[in-house]
Amino acid sequence: MMNRSFYACLLGGAALALSACVGPDANLDRGMGPMPLSRYVLQVEPDQDRIALAVHQNGLSLNQRQAIMALAQRYRGSNQTGLVIQVPTDGEQMANQTASQIASMLENVGVPRAQISVEGYRAPSANAPVLAGFTTIRAAVPRCGAEWGNLGRTGNNDGASNFGCAVNANLAAQISDPNDIVAPRTMTPPSAQRRTVVFEAYRQGQVTSAQREQLLSESRVSDVVE
Question: Measured between alpha carbons, how far is 163 from 145 in angstroms, rounded to an integer?
């Protein structure tokens, strides 16, 4: 009888010791659920696509014209509806002339005049550059590795606080168009010409699938390009 009590106490103590070893870790996130990727959902944050153009007596230089054309191309590819040209409030008359040249060039390359606005900004000096740009968004890259919990304590079956961060950080750094994070792209219209060809072949009882290319082993020697 004594041996049974002794062994029961021994087993109870071992169970308590094991539960203490694998207990919940205060350093791990609680209430986040077992899906670590849900902690670092892809998000976007506001950004500015803006260029600074120095004021020249002879007007816009070749490099400046190329920069304006590239800015206009990025603007047309975005979903924004307003491009702002900012002129130094204490600048010389040449700054206003530069702003007019920028607006005219933007309009000539396809930016609607109604979407171009000119406003002043407080500059540190009179020879400050003229700014041109628009508000856009960028992918928010999470900061990984700032804190680490005890990776050896997993009794609560939760992932580590950093688990899944690097995956979405890499995705955010590689996405070319952050608008894809906000909403999926619209589908392009189907090819009506190809659909008409398939329907006509179906009505005539012909094969509707595309002709299968011959394998190299089945083709003639003369078909091989040297």
Answer: 9
